[in-house]
Amino acid sequence: MSSNVPATVTYSLEEFSRHGGLTGPHKDGWGIAYYSQGDVRLVKEPLPASDSACVRFVQDHPFSSALVMSHIRKATQGANILTNCQPFVRELGGAMHVFAHNGTLDDGRLRERLSLGFHRPVGETDSEYAFCVLLGRLTNLWLRADGVPPLDRRMSIVAAFAEEIRGLGPANFLYADGDVVFAHGHKRTHGEQDIRPPGLHVLCRRCAQDVSAADINGLAITPTTGEQHVVLTASVPLTKESGWRPLLEGELIAIRKGAIVE
Description:
Blueprint: E1 2-11, H1 14-22, E2 30-36, E3 39-45, H2 53-60, E4 63-72, E5 88-92, E6 95-102, H3 107-113, H4 126-144, H5 151-166, E7 172-176, E8 181-184, E9 188-190, E10 194-196, E11 201-207, E12 215-216, E13 219-223, E14 228-234, E15 245-246, E16 252-256, E17 259-260
Antiparallel strand pairs: 1-4, 1-13, 1-14, 2-3, 2-4, 5-6, 6-7, 7-8, 8-16, 9-10, 11-14, 11-15, 12-13, 16-17
Helix pairs in contact: 4-5
């Protein structure tokens, strides 16, 4: 979720928990990252969301943020341990960077073809390795900039990275640098073995102060002041409304403060 002003974000988490192991296949961990006062609060666990005291804590203590990213894990690479749970968070250039990936990359070819920069993975997953590769590509740009680097230069680096990892497997990812969220759609598993686009969907929405206008399958967004402009991205549409648009295969968008800007 990206919004123009901070919103109180409440995960009722019934739907979230079902996908996290109660009835869904994603039983191997979950995480929620949200920006607050220039930093990132990260809560994650290598356990099913459906049976988590931490999930209940998040549910009972709603938070306010203009940028929130969550992920539910189905382990395909790496053990069921905390370091392998997403989202992943790193600092670069005085900003907090957050990354979540949906898909399975060819880990051998990934590590053989894409070299790391300064950042190193803590866990074992292809997703975290890919994130560290991306940060390596961005390091010089961020360290030489006076503040946040120009969007077009960041976009170019992220697009080139996305093109490379698309050749290694499904490469849907969300990457936030504190200024924008980059959303890259590729392809995902539909059914048992059918891997095809779309891999991500996007919805642009305006929410009134009435919380009932913003209830979305386990996620409630309550504007703090006035009308809220919100962009939501998700693997699958979270509501039946017609506004959801599938990202094209290989499409990359940049989202800032509740609007698609690139």
